[in-house]
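Notebook entry, structure prediction.
Reason for the run: the old model in the group folder had no record of what sequence produced it. Starting over properly, with the input documented here first.
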Amino acid sequence: RRSGIASSSQQRQQQQQQQQQQQEDQQQQGGGSVRITVRPDLLALLRVAVDTRLPGVGLVGGPRVLALLRDVGDTNAQVLAGMQSCLEAVLGSTFSGICTVNKLVDLHGAHRQRALSNLRKHLQQELNILLETGVAGCLPCIETLKQAFGHFRERLTLPGERPVMYLGIQLSPHSQRGEMLCALLDQAEVRAGGRFLGSLFPVSEAASQLAQLKAKERRLLEEGGDGGNASEPNDARIAELAGQLRELEKGRRALLSKPLSPLMAFFIDFVLRAGERRQQQQQQEEEQQEVQQVNAKLHHADIAEFCGYLANWRSPRLAPLVETRRQLQDERLRLVQEQMHERGGGGERGERVGRDHHHDAELAAISRKLLETEENIEQMNITSDAFWEEVAAITDLSTDLHSLGVRAPPELPDPSSLKSLYGDWVWNLNCPMQLLFGSPLRCAGQFLVEVLRDLGARHSKELYVISVIGIQSSAKSTLLNYLFGCGFATSAGRCTRGLYCSLLESQGRTLLIMDTEGLMSLETDGGDVFDAQMALMAMACSHLVLINHKGELSRQLQDLLEVCLFAMQHLRVCRIQPKLLFVLRDQHDRSHGVHEDALRLMRKHLSEASSNLSLRLDELISLDPGSVFLLPSAFASDLDIHTGREVRWSTELFAQEAMRLRRKIFSGFSSDGGQRNGFPQPAARSEVDCAPEFSTLPDWCLHAMSVWRVLDRYGPNLLHYKTIQEIEIQKELEEFLRQISGQMVNGSDGLAEQSRALLTSCTQRLGDGEPGERVDTEFRSSLQALLDSCLAGSLAEFQRCMQARRSKLPEAQQEEAKRKLRLPVEYQGDLARYTWSLCLTEAVDRDQLRALKVHFKTTIEELWQKQSSRAMAEEQAQHIFAHEWAAFEQKCRERFERTAKSRKQLAEEVCLVFNHVLRQHRHVEEQMLALELIPAAALLSAEPLLQWDDRRFASEFFEVHMANQFAEYVAAHKPDRGPNRDTRRQAAACPSMHSAKDDDNISRLVVSEVRKHLSGALHFDLQDGATQLPAVDAILEAMRRLNEEVKIEESRFLSQIGIRLKGGMVSFLNSAHLCLRHSLLDSLAKAEVDRAEHQWKTLQSHRDQTEQEFISLVRGRTSDAGYSKMLASSFFDVFAREWLDETLVAVAADIRAQCLSDMPDASGAVERAFQQSFVERSWEDVLQYVLDVNAYLHKIFASLFEDRKVSITRVQRPLLAARLGSYFDALIGAFRSWGQRQQGGRAKLSSLQAALRQLAAQSRTDMGGLPDGQLDLSLLSERFPVVADFEIEDPSRFAQDFSLHIASLLGGAQVEGLVAERLDAALQKQQAQVWALIKGCSGMCPCCGSKCDRVDKHTVHRCGHHLLPAFNGWRVAGTCEAALDACKSFKNHDAPKRSDYSDHLYPNLQEYLQAEHPEWLPFPKEDRELLADSVLKAAWVNCRVPLLHRYDMVDCTPAEWIAAYEEPHRKLGIHSIEAAETCLLHYGYRPDGA
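New structure, fully documented this time:
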């Protein structure tokens, strides 16, 4: 420290004079002389110190040497004077003086502090002298100082003799605690039985196993991502994994009840509690009277000793394993080369096959050995991080299970003490902390977050994050150690696993340095995906990213950055714009011109690639022209002339360049580049760097964890590409597939159309009575032929497209494309088969029911012939009916079960079609790129978003971005505040208030609004009666709508109140799409249940009817009156219900056609509404139009439908009643005619049916066909009920009784009333269907409230008739005057607009729409002076009074408007608004606040 001690060169000279005087006095008093000589080894050391030129150390002209005499007490002054003379003779002007230091081991308290204060005083004086003279060099890197010892040791030689210290000599410390540690490790190794880590660290290993099982489960689910049959083989494995996960969860709970492992207990006692014991001993020695709270602190000596013994125990065990791995890898490479060589040579085919099998077996054996060796290396690679990982795992697990009464082991220190110790480990001892660890990589838990929270509270300076990425073994960790004095591990090969962080303070800021795992490594499993994940993790969590690269800028590095930029755009995990700095290592030619040209070329390529993918490079990263730095080689080597060995040392040039690089990095802290004493000073944080995620250490940690979760789960969808060209090729390929599928499957005369035609034909054949089995066989064979033909055509078209392409695609991509071509064909085939199964089941049920009735009829006839007793016949008939119906019911039940779809089958179909749509459009629709393919198992196991409670919803997805803005929203929010346009427009100032926690406010205020805004887009309802999946276009439209709604919700609501989505939009968007799938699945499941219930109810109604019919036959076998009553009831049901319903459908369809001719689509409906209100000057209608145009449109449609309904039903209702009566009259006449012909004798009922057939044939012959309006008498015979062919005693009496029963039924039912009732029901159904067709888009212009009239599938709204903004309540800011500028006018575009959700004022219409209503951009603008046309002027003048009152506007209507257009007797009064609202209430209008 430079303050506190004032010193100068004069003081130093005075001190030297005093020392010389004391030496002379002592020599005179002693009466003798002491001869001091320098030992040869010390002399060599002093000469090296004089001649050395260490990089960055000491003065510019040479070093200053201060001699420390250690472990000495009161030394004779004569001896000290002799020593000083010797040293001055050798060192000359570089000699700084001598400082004696007592032995510190046995000193405590004040004595120890005094000894150290003397040393500090000497060092401070020397430092002040250097600073005052102005010849001091820059302060060295810490890594440079660490290398100084090696530099001296390599040069300590005596002239012509052996070195003082050999390079091969290693210090080997020994202590009792170290031997105890080695003994515990040996015992654990013997007892582990291959599970070394599991025995030492059971809790962290259980967490690692849990992560591995979850990763494996996710891979299995992704393999079944199509939702089809491909997922079935994985079901058993998924179920097995689920069982293992449950067992592991139970086992983790039991782990906390067990004591710590001996090694963990030793670590806690040796390292964690050593500092506490020292402080307690210190308190006792100083005899403090009061007991004080002492925070335990770690001591570097303990940690160094522990880590040293751990490394000494680990090294001899890892060395042979590493050598074995190297040998196995060499052997594997040799076998692969031999196999390739032999395949290229000659030989018999059988011999080649045999050799290939032999090589494959050897390669498989070597691969197994490599896996075993890798596992053994992992088990033995124990570091101090593993101990801390176990401590954190125990703490987090005990916290999670605290509510269940589970506690941590008692020998473990208090969690707060552990967190304090780890904070000391990270901050004071500068030890790296591991943020990502394990395999697969996973984030640290809450333990680390709380540690960083405590550190952030104590060190509240601004945070600046620097990270490094680069290929493996490119000396990334070494570079960070040189630059910032970090303690990252360095070694050849893979030294950094996952992601490490180091903390320090510099330049008035807290620096967080991130060291990432090396890229392009052969030892990682992720390959290119892992490389991109690491690079993107660094970019998303850093202010500055150092790209450490050996050699020049390469194409491979550029490809990696391009893919990362592509993923950054779509994953949206970056909260700031990271700066990139390329550090090119081992550069001999360090001319900046060449490398700056290369950087400009890379930036050009990145910009071109970004523009091709609709990205903006400047919005993603900061890449300045000077963002490149060249470093020479860090080490130099040569042969020692004395020993002949290779000597390696760090170069002064590298140290100087590293110092320049550090200055360049630190200069980025300051916006003006100002410096003081050679160092840049901190400046105010820029707007780019002020993201809340980078404000404090815990916020940054939570952000980093969130980023990794997004990258780990959703990143592989985007990061599996190797180059940007591969992305463009995939995009082109997907477009080919989409066009081919659209043409071959959904195009004109495509597979879908042909399948529908085949279904119609085969269904007609079933209706005509053809056997179901034969029709089913023909249908399935014909459908398979259509599928094969479509698939062959699709593949042929694909091959044609590939041949027309200039460059050839890889075979793997072509095979993947062909597989995707099969999916829509298979989906269409499954859809047709399911529809056919429903039709076939219905036909089979109908045929079997008819056959059952015929069977009952025959059985009863046989009973009548055999039995003379009526009671006996009835009893047997009931028994036979129950038996036969039970068999029939069982068959129906089996058919119902075969055709019914389980929830799993429905989930597979939903996932199949959604994933198919996603594959076809993910490269066309930007927001679909980040959506994942969801398998059926994941859909079934996940809980839909809308079923989450508000607190979970808030904590999972939302976070406060702008605290002040959100506080204002909380303060201004009132529970009774409605969405009135007038209250939204008023800028009422609300006093600032402090509410509850942010999570509570978000769950209370934000979640409910988001649910309300997105509820429509998150639901996928089927049409009434639909049981099948919607069309692909409907699903695509629903997905687009959801994407657009989420985007709008984020931009115009969340961002306006200072809230944003955690980890970007990706996680929330995937959860929302999962909820959409759930909604469709629930709708399909409900439809399936309803269909099954309908089938069962229909079957039961047939049972009751059939049982009643045939039991009635048995009971009334001797009574013609009973027969006639039963037959009359059956005929009445046939005509009054079945025939009437079929006829009424045609009548309702006629009304539907007439309505559609008046309103063919949404555009025509909107035009009719405008004409009927504004153009026709119906002021009441105008008021209803501007209140809610959708409700008004519904009203005029209902009126139109009612008019058509009245006009048609007035004519058709009596005609239908008369036609129905005519059928019954014809039926009665036919019965009477038959009765007269059969008079005088008995007759069978079959003769009556034959007479009806003859009557129908004679009628057609006489009429020469069937003229329009003539009764079709063939219906009398075709719809003859299925009854037993009973014998009629008196046909004439039977016909008379039948007539009376028919008349009675007609009189009771009132034919006209029956027709009216059935007709109204049919018309209501048609009205709902027609309204669904013509209501169109519900979007309304945010300015004037006009309805969007687009009829196509769209995401951008448009309307043809824009009104005045005043109709929708818009006022001029400041004056509250009604806004009478036309909606499309220049004045309205330039006028300020107030937010719909807050009091924020946008400067113009463009920014207002862009922030809150982007779906209305681009907004039309007309270059004309006219404020409004005559239609709008007249409407405003005569409707302004109620509107001014409703929206609290000031009337500014021009006088010339009033004079020209006002109608005093027709203009609306102030209370007209209430009448208009009352009129619209029946059509979906909801008043403000309702």
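Summary: The radius of gyration is 45 Å.
The old model has been moved to the deprecated folder.
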